[in-house]
Write a structure and sequence with these properties.
Blueprint (H helix, E strand, L loop, with lengths): L2 H4 E6 L6 E2 L8 H14 L5 E3 L4 E4 L1 H10 L3 E6 L5 H9 L6 H10 L3 H16 L6 H8 L8 H6 L7 H14 L11 H13 L5 H10 L8 H19 L4
Parallel strand pairs: 2-4, 3-5
Antiparallel strand pairs: 1-5, 3-4
Helix pairs in contact: 2-3, 5-6, 6-7, 9-10, 9-11, 10-12, 11-12
Amino acid sequence: MDLKNEFKVDVTDDYKSFKFLDTNREPNERIVKKLEKSIRDNGVQIPIIVNQKKQIVDGQHRFWALNRLGYKIPYIISKTWKDDKHTIEINNTGSKWNAMDFANYAAESGNLDVLEAIKIANRWEQQTAKKLRPTTALEILMEGRSHAGLLKKLKNLTYKLDRTRGEQVYDSLNEMSKHKMKASPFSAKIARAIKIMNYDYDDLDEEVIAIMCTDNYVQNFNKENDQLEYLKDIYLEAEQKYKPKK
């Protein structure tokens, strides 16, 4: 490998000369502040990496920290950078991308199902006072019986939205939230179990859920299979109780 021809090291205080990729993650304020302190105390230890268009491939949080401090920015121009997927791989060697990072990448890359799912997830997060995490919302809204494979589908741009079932699950969780429980109905384990039950029973009856929650101080389990079996058992018990009333 001819490093001299493939990489160039430079430094500048011309912040405006740098550009951002559509797939760059949203800056995390906590990380930026942490880097500001580290750079003040120890100086700059790692340069940012840009492609030949001076788009930031790796180190956007370091860029913002240096920008705020008014420090010069050391950077490496990589001629080996190829595409957005390459950027993901580079970033995953450091601070790994989470589900929302991949979701934003998929949305920016043209997956309209993910774009719509993100909008719904953000709305649900506000409606539940941040009790329902956006990642859990994406799992609820994803086509299929379970949440399995979410990251892979986001990364490969194959995520598909099932809005009807997603909203049915959300309605069930909201009904559960009206009752006293030992655990939040918006927790990932309970939400995933309700999603599977919605699929298996072709939607859940909210009146049955009300009886289920009234008769049981619904609790959380460490294992997802235990959570699912527990909720299935108490739901079916409540259903038997409700049927004679019809």
